[in-house]
Amino acid sequence: MELIFARPGEEKRVSRIVGSDKRRKCLMDLGFVEGARVRVLSLVNGSFIVSIMGTRVALDRSLVANVHVEEVEA
Predict the structure, then answer these.
(1) Which pLDDT belongs to residue 46?
(2) What are residue 13's DSSP bridge partners?
(3) Domain that holds residue 36
(4) C-alpha angle 28/62/15, rounded to 5°?
(5) From CA 53, how far away is CA 32, in angstroms rounded?
(6) Which of 3, 4, 6, 72 has its CA 20 to 30 A from that of 45?
């Protein structure tokens, strides 16, 4: 599932990053690495505010679509 389908308040685990090398590197530099937990905080004008590794990050839809996630086990 892509992170773009997550709703505010949901916590997911990053399963993989897709896209061009440049986009993947950008996301990985922000902390989007396999196994990292990410929580969608809000959606603002089509942009996502997420929390990952203790940091809040704002991403546009095109970047969020490159992040694939899975459910977090309880």
Answers:
(1) 84
(2) 37, 70
(3) 3-71
(4) 45
(5) 9
(6) 72
**Can you name the residues that pair with 14 across neighbouring β-strands?**
69
Strand blocks (E) in the chain: 11-17, 37-44, 47-52, 55-60, 67-71
Report the C-alpha gap between 23 and 17 in whole angstroms.
9
Amino acid at 46: G
**Coil, strand or helix at 20:** coil
Looking at the structure of the chain, the number of domains it has is 1
Tokens encoding 46 = 């089509």
The two three-digit tokens of residue 70, written as one number: 């899975």
Averaged over successive runs of 10 residues, the pLDDT of the chain (74 residues) comes to 93 96 95 96 92 94 94 81
CATH number for the domain that contains residue 66: 2.30.30.90
